[in-house]
Amino acid sequence: MVVMAGTGGYEYLLVKHFAGHNIEAAVINPRRVRDFAKAIGMDAKIDPIDARVVSNYADVVTPKPMATKSDDELKHGALVARRNQLLELVNQETYLMKQSWDQDTRQSIRDVLEELKKQLEIVDSALAKLLKVDTANQRTIEMLQSVKGMGRVMVSTLLAELPELGKLNPGEIAKLVGVAPINRDSGKKNGKRFIGGGRGQMRRVLSMATVVAIRHNPAIKTFYVHLKSQGKDSKVAIVACMRKFITIINLLIKTDLLWQNKASV
Each residue of 200-212: pLDDT tens digit? Predict the structure, then answer.
């Protein structure tokens, strides 16, 4: 198995190449590799040292290989990534509009925003068409679309960002997404739990989908109300709902079942 550190997305071209030759590959978080290097006293950063650190890290941690993606899943990934880029550009231009006072400048920004929104519509249309023609994942798509509150963007993001869905246990899938609570206890002190790590983009989309599910999905809504009745902070309750949401979705795929829209705690 080939192990490599993430390099801002370039690594996936290599992963795709390896997959085409039936070679397993694992991509590890570069920040963790850097922390590991510092922990073993290798502060210098040059290519030969980095390669040795990655190798040592792999020996200690034994990362799991990435799930192989089909061509349609890779296409989903490319379109989802482009959609995120366009949204970021829209946010940037919107922010610049608020700062600008010059009318010509504001018109220029309006023109750019109009074009960006047209591109968003094109990408959204392409994602919708891909969901209909992706025969390899048709059953998975059917199960995901049976979930009340699940939009096309969430379905496409799950296909693109979480190919391990249905193959892991609840704790593993929650950790992979980054919604598993991390303890901060020492001696008699019980610190506040927090979440982190995992796949950030997947977590952000899951967060938005969960907010929608809290309003429209009976099971998630009931769970949220139950947590709030126990005095939980809204943010804590939403994160707990995110964890419940993704673990139930994971179970659906694992057991090949459609979502039953029944309220439960």
Answer: 788 889 999 999 9
